[in-house]
């Protein structure tokens, strides 16, 4: 049997694009069955619609367009077979999509996440419904979809194929059913041998996720004694990235693997590849772990990056390979977002500090033909000459235009107006924040003028403790660093300098971080050193630790208390923040939802 895994890249609800791709497939020679073996084509979970859909799948206009796509596909299948029946004999497509049930008024009463079988000459037929519906972090599938209740061993050309959709391969104590365990027990009871396991996925990216998928698939392949084909989609949906990386594994051997962050098509003849010799003796199959035996805890799902052997605990460092993958993901995420928003120009507010320098450098490295990026430096009363010198040096290294637009004059005018209106001085935090907001206003004025996308420059550490001004340095269309702790920002900057011959001036990396909003200001005056701060934050966010637990792990009680207080009181800032490109298993953004007005825990 020949297997073709179509790792596709389509924008959500691009029904015309989906139909066009299938029309092209039907018209291509690779659908013609000149060879004797049958061919099975795989397409990702929700290929017909895109994912995640959120409330879009409930909107009438979306549903009407989707149902028209279904009709068009049925007509394509029937008409093509009538015209060229011999060309498509032995072919079949497994396609991820939605199966709607409607009431008499045409309103949806039930939606199922399904695998459709499309055999040329026949209409789409739902053959399997997703059983495990994730409802944690970025997932809320139970809000929209009804779960399936049946295991499906599908027969294709005399071969027994177990069908799964994404989460079905990840049973845990979160769920009452375990599809893998059920498949094992059924095969043992019926003395049935599986020829293939298929998983159609829309699995979001995070660091080290691909390795987890492969390891889990290898476990399933070994447990069920059959090769496993994993088909994943590619695409950037706001802050969520889908990285592809489709593969086929037989026990612990990877037979082939797709590209990451690119559409791809894997073709393999399973009968001719070096697969295992199938066994009919179920005694040779290792029984899978039951869901109760699995270690799929919160900590396993959200992959905390703390070294608990250190006292106090510390954040695990990023390797060079981690940095390489992060840059690849950020490039893909920014380009996906800008393309879908229709923007080709970018602007970064440069401060002379490490965060804005890294964002500008990344954007320069990521630019495609026809795109432009510029930097805007907006000095105030407290901006050091060194900041301008370093900003100039960086832009010279990057060959990026740098514009200077001082805010000190309008800042002085605002102070005078404030004094005249309220008979009091604008000072303290209010004076610091107005500087940041003036910069935000100028930044967006330039953005409007040039039709450019503003890139936010805040990092995950600042977001966690609210160390950014709402409507000031928190502005931007998308955040490249919002899932990267400050200590990791330095690591990535040094990695880039190793790869690109010190393109970021060393003084930008080595100078003490400062917002330059008051005389002699440094971050260390308001926050613990970032290596300690980031470890505390990772404990709070990914481990869900209490302050007492962090203190027991060696952290200073006063620092923990201060960080925890800042973390809780800044929820309203995170709520109004721009989309954050998700790089880690647990991130701020869509997967992190906390009430704004809850009683703070002491």
Q: Could you provide a short overview of the structure?
A:
This protein is of the alpha/beta class and 602 residues long.
Task: Give the tags.
602 residues, alpha/beta, Nitrilase/N-carbamoyl-D-aminoacid amidohydrolase, Rossmann fold, 2 domains, six-stranded mixed sheet, 17 helices
Averaging pLDDT over every residue, what do you get? 91
> Helix count?
17
Measured by DSSP, the beta-strand proportion falls in 15-25%
Number of DSSP-assigned strands: 20
CATH fold type of the largest domain: Nitrilase/N-carbamoyl-D-aminoacid amidohydrolase
Overall spatial form: elongated
- CATH architecture descriptor text of the largest domain: 4-Layer Sandwich
Nearest-angstrom radius of gyration?
A: 27 Å
CATH class of the largest domain: Alpha Beta
- Output the CATH homologous superfamily of the largest domain: Carbon-nitrogen hydrolase
Helical amount: 25-40%
């Amino acid at each position: 049997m020949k297997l073709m895994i179509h790792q596709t890249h389509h924008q959500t609800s691009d029904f015309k694009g989906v139909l066009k791709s299938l029309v092209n497939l039907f018209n291509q020679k690779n659908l013609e069955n000149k060879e004797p073996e049958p061919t099975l084509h795989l397409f990702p979970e929700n290929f017909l619609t895109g994912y995640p859909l959120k409330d879009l799948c409930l909107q009438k206009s979306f549903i009407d367009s989707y149902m028209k796509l279904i009709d068009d596909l049925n007509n394509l299948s029937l008409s093509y077979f009538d015209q060229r029946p011999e060309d498509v004999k032995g072919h079949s497509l497994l396609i991820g999509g939605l199966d709607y049930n409607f009431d008499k008024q045409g309103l949806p009463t039930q939606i199922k996440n399904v695998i459709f079988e499309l055999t040329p000459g026949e209409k789409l037929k739902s053959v399997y419904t997703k059983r495990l519906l994730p409802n944690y972090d970025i997932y809320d599938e139970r809000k929209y979809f009804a779960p399936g209740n049946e295991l499906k061993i599908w027969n294709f050309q005399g071969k027994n194929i177990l069908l799964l959709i994404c989460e079905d391969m990840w049973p845990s104590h979160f769920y009452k059913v375990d599809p893998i365990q059920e498949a094992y027990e059924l095969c043992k009871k019926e003395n049935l041998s599986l020829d293939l396991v298929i998983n159609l996925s829309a699995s979001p990216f995070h660091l080290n996720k691909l390795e987890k998928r492969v390891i889990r698939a290898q476990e399933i392949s070994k447990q069920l004694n059959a090769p496993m084909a994993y088909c994943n989609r590619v695409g950037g949906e706001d802050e969520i990235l889908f990285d592809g990386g489709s593969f086929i594994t037989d026990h612990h051997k990877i037979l082939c693997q797709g590209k990451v962050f690119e559409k791809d098509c894997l073709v393999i003849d399973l009968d001719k590849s070096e697969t295992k010799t199938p066994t009919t003796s179920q005694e040779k199959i290792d029984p899978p772990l039951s869901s109760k035996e699995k270690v799929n805890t919160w900590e396993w799902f959200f992959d905390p990056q703390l070294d608990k052997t250190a006292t106090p605990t510390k954040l695990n460092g990023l390797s060079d390979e981690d940095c390489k993958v992060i840059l690849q993901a950020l490039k893909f995420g920014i380009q996906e977002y800008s393309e879908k928003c229709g923007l080709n120009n970018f602007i970064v507010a440069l401060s002379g500090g490490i965060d804005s320098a890294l964002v500008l450098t990344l954007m320069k490295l990521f630019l495609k033909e026809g795109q432009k990026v510029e930097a805007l430096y907006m000095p105030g009363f407290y901006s050091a000459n060194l900041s301008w010198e370093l900003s100039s040096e960086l832009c010279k290294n990057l060959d990026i235009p740098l514009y200077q637009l001082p805010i000190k004059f309008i800042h002085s005018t605002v102070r005078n107006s404030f004094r005249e209106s309220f008979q009091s001085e604008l000072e303290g935090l209010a004076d610091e924040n107005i500087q940041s907001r003036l910069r935000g206003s100028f930044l967006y004025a330039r953005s409007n003028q040039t039709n450019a996308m503003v890139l936010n420059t805040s990092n995950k550490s600042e977001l966690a403790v609210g160390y950014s001004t709402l409507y000031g340095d928190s502005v931007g269309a998308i955040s490249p660093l919002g899932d990267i702790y400050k200590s990791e920002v330095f690591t990535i900057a040094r990695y880039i300098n190793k790869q690109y011959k010190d393109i970021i001036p060393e003084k930008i990396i080595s100078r003490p971080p400062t917002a330059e909003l008051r005389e002699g200001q440094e971050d260390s005056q308001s926050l613990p050193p970032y290596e300690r701060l980031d470890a505390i934050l990772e404990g709070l966010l990914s481990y869900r630790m209490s302050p007492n637990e962090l203190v027991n792990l060696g952290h200073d009680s006063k620092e923990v208390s201060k960080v925890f207080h800042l973390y809780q009181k800044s929820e309203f800032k995170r709520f109004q923040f721009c989309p954050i490109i998700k790089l880690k298993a647990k991130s701020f953004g869509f997967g992190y939802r906390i009430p704004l007005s809850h009683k703070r825990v002491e």
